[in-house]
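Kindly review these tokens for lecture notes.

. . .
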Amino acid sequence: MTIDCPNIETAVSARANGFQYVRSDDVAVVSVTCDRSAAGIPLVTALQACLIRFEPFLRSMLDGRPGARLFMFVTTPFWGHHNVVARRCGVWVREDWGWLPHASRSPSVEISRDVESRFAGLAQIGDSLGFEAADLVRRDDASRFLFVSSDEALTEERVRTMFDKVIPQGQSAIDWASVVDQIGAGADACIRIGGNFDDREVSIDAFIPAELLEGIRHVC
């Protein structure tokens, strides 16, 4: 199935453009969306079309930052008791990560709060966003997100620090306001992918410092 080119929009202020969880007026957004409703477009087709349209922007952003790479943060739900198999697999569950066997990854870090614990980790995706990574994030944006950074550390300390920042005490899911707050504090961009099987749209939203938007408008 072929579809029209997805829509791409930019805004120098994501907050002023309706992204209420963005707390700073100095964060811009690049949004790629595909409307599935009119032609009954399959979700997979819509996501692939969005990725094709998003790739030049991602490439431009990475090329403009020496050493920058694309990373994924991922965590499991809190659970009161983990069996031996769960502890051995940790955050890197085989069925989720079999498509990326050679990715650089952090250790699977167990993080405890109160009487429960969960696992978290970081993976370096590289310099391109493939369908498998995008779809994995799309399926659960409460426990996974993508970001661009020049810091290649994949240490337990970094995992714990990021976990504490993006999942504040008392919360069980990723707080997107806290994720976007990482721009300029360890991340050059944060990427959110949305769209479930019954949603009208599939979207890729990339949040970047406002002063960097002008440098990538030519590919948008």
